[in-house]
Structure to design on (188 residues):
């Protein structure tokens, strides 16, 4: 078991006319406008830092110990009421590489972030010097409170994100996948 200490983000170069990291900008924008989402996301990330995962399987020990496919945390909303968020849910697939979804419950909307843990083989050693961390694959789901342009961007990114998640499931984090999706450290 090792600690999660790195986050990586694909640049998603789906459109040469768009600036890189547009989705990161959108993500930051939502964080700045939605205090509940921001606090919930911070709590989730802090909780994930506390969790160990098995680098051979990519599965969080907390899930394995409880025999559950999710980890829950309670986050206070703007009124000070506790709400449950299914913070990490394992997305089952026929592949060995697990993918996960962070889901922040808020009214009828569920902003979510998809990610995978890094697992062996050691190709990542050459790329990052370590092979531990999370690959954040996708940002916030489309919802009625987002600006039109943001929803369009979400639609455009969705297919590429799905392709990336599939490629990670099929080929793990091979050098070709890292190069194709320009995977880098998550920007500060």
């Amino acid at each position: 078991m090792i600690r999660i200490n790195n986050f990586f983000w694909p640049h998603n170069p789906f459109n040469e006319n768009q600036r890189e990291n547009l989705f990161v900008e959108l993500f930051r924008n939502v964080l700045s406008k939605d205090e509940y989402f921001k606090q919930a996301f911070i709590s989730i990330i802090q909780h994930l830092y506390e969790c160990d995962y098995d680098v051979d399987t990519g599965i969080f020990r907390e899930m394995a110990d409880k025999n559950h496919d999710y980890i829950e945390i309670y986050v206070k909303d703007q009124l000070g009421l506790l709400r449950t968020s299914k913070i990490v849910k394992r997305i089952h697939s026929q592949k060995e590489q697990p993918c996960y979804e962070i889901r922040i419950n808020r009214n009828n909307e569920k902003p979510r972030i998809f990610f995978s843990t890094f697992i062996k083989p050691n190709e990542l050693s050459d790329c990052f010097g370590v092979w531990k961390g999370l690959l954040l694959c996708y940002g916030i789901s489309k919802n009625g409170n987002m600006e039109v342009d943001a929803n369009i961007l979400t639609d455009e990114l969705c297919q590429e994100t799905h392709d990336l998640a599939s490629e990670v499931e099929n080929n793990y984090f091979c050098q070709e996948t890292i190069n194709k999706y320009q995977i880098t450290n998550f920007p500060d």
About this structure: The chain is about 35% helix and 25% strand.
